[in-house]
Design a protein that fits this description.
The protein is mainly alpha-helical. It has a single domain (about 1-125), classed as Orthogonal Bundle (Cytochrome Bc1 Complex, Chain D, domain 2), CATH 1.10.760. The protein has helices at about 1-15, 20-25, 65-75, 80-90, 90-100, 115-125. α3 crosses α5 (about 90-100). It is globular. The chain starts with a helix and ends with a helix. Mean pLDDT is about 90; it is low at about 10-15. The structure holds heme C (HEC). Heme C binds near residues 28, 33, 58, 65 and 105.
């Protein structure tokens, strides 16, 4: 009986992302994203400073895609669930979110697993 209880509790704890693993998994993202508050960054993507809880396409002076802007205007906020889904398939996520099968986003990189995506989110929540 106690063994059964332990098994049912474990998966809930496994949901938490690990910020240290996330810092490593974030390295490839640094080609295009800074984590400092630097909206005028010269990299291809927007600064991800304070991204946890931020509305999509919220920074001034960034050339976002029309699709990401439309999602932000429709209320898309980067909580853990949305962030995790987006970074695993950015274009597919925007198409599903907008109900627009031909919407085009500008980010094409994909994080390979939900675990890595959650770790990156936990890391970015500290930035
Ligand atoms: C080759 C460049 C490039 C790489 C590498 C890249 N991104 Fe992006 N990212 C972009 C661009 C460009 C956008 C803007 C997308 C749009 O406007 O549709 C973006 C947007 C985002 C956004 C939404 C930002 C906002 O203000 O709403 C998040 C979150 C994000 N990227 C996370 C990541 C993560 C995590 C990684 C690493 C796994 C990563 N990106 C790797 C180019 C990149």
């Amino acid at each position: 009986m106690t063994g059964f209880l332990a098994l049912t509790i474990a998966p809930a704890q496994a949901m938490e992302g690990d910020p240290e693993a996330g810092a490593l998994a974030f390295r490839p993202c640094m080609t295009c994203h800074v984590t400092e508050a630097q909206p005028e960054s010269s990299r291809a993507g927007p600064s991800l400073h304070g991204i946890a809880g931020r509305r999509a396409a919220a920074l001034d002076g960034v050339r976002y895609s029309d699709a990401l802007r439309a999602a932000g205007a429709a209320g898309l906020v980067w909580d853990e669930t949305n962030f995790t889904a987006y970074v695993q398939d950015p274009v597919g996520f925007l198409r599903a979110y907008l109900g627009e099968p031909r919407a085009r986003g500008l980010m094409l990189v994909r994080v390979p697993s939900p675990e890595a995506a959650r770790d990156i989110f936990a890391y970015l929540a500290t930035r």
